[in-house]
Amino acid sequence: ETGVTQSPTHLIKTRGQQVTLRCSSQSGHNTVSWYQQALGQGPQFIFQYYREEENGRGNFPPRFSGLQFPNYSSELNVNALELDDSALYLCASSRAASGGRSEQFFGPGTRLTVL
Amino acid sequence: GNSVTQMEGPVTLSEEAFLTINCTYTATGYPSLFWYVQYPGEGLQLLLKATKADDKGSNKGFEATYRKETTSFHLEKGSVQVSDSAVYFCALSDLINAGNMLTFGGGTRLMVKP
Fold it and tell me: What is the mean pLDDT of residues A57-63?
């Protein structure tokens, strides 16, 4: 069974650029969530995708957007990068279940540095 | 909104010492509670969970009990090892539409010395 994978591992961008991060969900999972983890802090929920639609969103501006594909993989896009966007971006997959109490499995993350 | 508060680290212990990492939460309803562990350079791994009041989650010698009356979910281990050195995150699960989102505390770094 393949776990959650993310690419790339590391990325360096400059302010104002755009970036796309990718995530492949674990086999059998149909829901993908994205989190931002700034250095020394806990992860913060960005959004979740289920059945190729945004299923919920945290307190992030519209320049953070995403996609989910028919094979349940997902992309996180960030436009107009700012220095504060430098963080570890974590993807988590799960299987939507009755009551929503499904466990999320995390990938290793993508480390984004904005200069 | 919902929130999670953890004791600040780092926590430095000698091998075989007793560990407690405090976690309290604020939430509406009855969330599920989790402890995740993050080793250097890695993503998050689920350590243990509890889904209702008075449930005890346990794994690899770690334990935590869901205390609704004190809104707490403290992590404990009777005898830590050097390999337990990592950052520990307490989290709660909120329902959103068809799924759930996690709200995390700020993390507590544990350093175990031989």
Answer: 95
